[in-house]
Design brief:
single chain; about 350 residues; alpha/beta; Rossmann fold; seven-stranded parallel β-sheet; three-stranded mixed β-sheet; globular
């Protein structure tokens, strides 16, 4: 089913984090909606190649670069963030997920930007009480939460302080983003590719709420146009266990999933050693003590507010997986190439 992209009734939109997974989807949606897009880029530009975008080189921590980016823009969409499962990345997460948010909101206030959309995360919300659904009334991540969770909660505080100072801003909180345009790839994109290439020796119990990157992009544009000032919007999909995700990928690709499924207690005991081994091999650790916490939290998420006020909907996970692997194949990321992958359901 083709998604309806909200029309953007403004001329210029600035996007930070435009070359990331969500950024590539948001920029494509903005172009389809008729916006003129400025993109702040640092190093990697693969997600923007061939697109009609005004590129601005710079660092999100540089106030001058951000001021130039947002000057004379009607909307600013702030997507730049560091997502890490490693505690040692906490200083970088504070610099980008917290301090750089201050740079962005100050630039928006100085430039008189009509609306800022700040991309936060489900992780900004407290994990407890675990038995109750998570909605926008849930409090912020607890003091003992993982560093990423705390950094996203702290970034939201800065945005709300700016709203009190006169900035028109809304916050979107996606769950675990999956889908095409995953050039780098993202941590979950890497999991999918590892499953396909049989590089993953086993799976773990637990799961998460997975949402298509294109549905989040549509929600971001809707928040820019219709969101209520100072409001959070949870953009969720559906919860699936990791084993169920792997089963669906196996059925799609014909590649058997790992048979071993570790119980959570065993995974928690082994995670520190697995993370250390990944560091020695200069690989990104996929199952760490932090990621195992995430697989136990936020199991029931309500996007009722986003559905009611933004028209948010989420496509089925199978459609997302089919489109994602078709995109991986088209971009030479599946090796050896396997025939028989289902064609994409839609390009939107």
């Amino acid at each position: 089913m083709r998604r309806v992209i909200p029309r953007v009734g403004v001329s210029h939109v600035a996007v930070t984090g435009a070359a990331g997974h969500l950024g590539g989807a948001v920029v494509r949606a903005l172009i389809e909606a008729g916006a003129n897009v400025r993109a702040l880029v640092h190093h990697d530009r693969r997600a923007l190649e061939g697109l009609s975008v005004e590129l601005h080189e710079g660092d999100i921590q540089d106030p001058d670069a951000v001021a130039r980016l947002v000057a004379r823009c009607d909307r600013v969409i702030h997507l730049a963030a560091v997502i890490s499962l490693e505690p040692r990345a906490e200083p970088l997460m504070k610099a980008i997920n917290v301090d750089a948010v201050q740079v962005v909101v100050d630039a928006c206030l100085a430039a008189g930007v009509a609306r800022l959309v700040h991309a936060s995360s489900i992780h900004a919300f407290a994990a407890h009480p675990a038995a109750e659904p998570v909605d926008e009334s849930r409090g912020p991540a607890e003091p003992n939460a993982p560093a990423y969770d705390r950094s996203k909660a702290a970034g939201e505080v800065i945005v709300r302080d700016a709203v009190a100072r006169g900035l028109d801003a809304v916050i979107v909180n996606p769950t675990a983003i999956v889908g095409p345009y995953d050039f780098r790839p993202s941590p979950m994109g890497e999991v999918m590719l590892d499953l396909y290439h049989r590089r993953m020796p086993g799976l773990v119990a637990g799961g998460f709420d997975w949402v298509d990157v294109r549905d989040v992009a549509t929600g971001v544009l809707a928040a820019a146009e219709r969101g209520v000032r100072g409001t959070n919007y949870l953009l969720s999909g559906t919860w699936h266990a990791v084993v169920d995700l792997a089963d669906r990928i196996a059925a799609l690709t014909g590649v058997p999933r790992p048979r071993f499924v570790s119980p959570m207690w065993l995974a928690r005991a082994a995670a520190p050693f697995a993370a250390g081994w990944a560091r020695l091999r200069k690989k990104r650790a996929l199952f760490t003590p932090t990621s195992l916490v995430a697989l136990r939290n936020h199991q029931r998420v309500s996007s009722e507010r986003a559905r009611r006020e933004l028209g948010h909907t989420a496509r089925p996970l199978d459609a997302t997986l089919r489109d994602t692997f078709a995109w991986f194949e088209a971009n030479g990321m599946l090796s050896p190439r396997r025939a028989g992958l289902l064609p994409p359901t839609t390009a939107s």
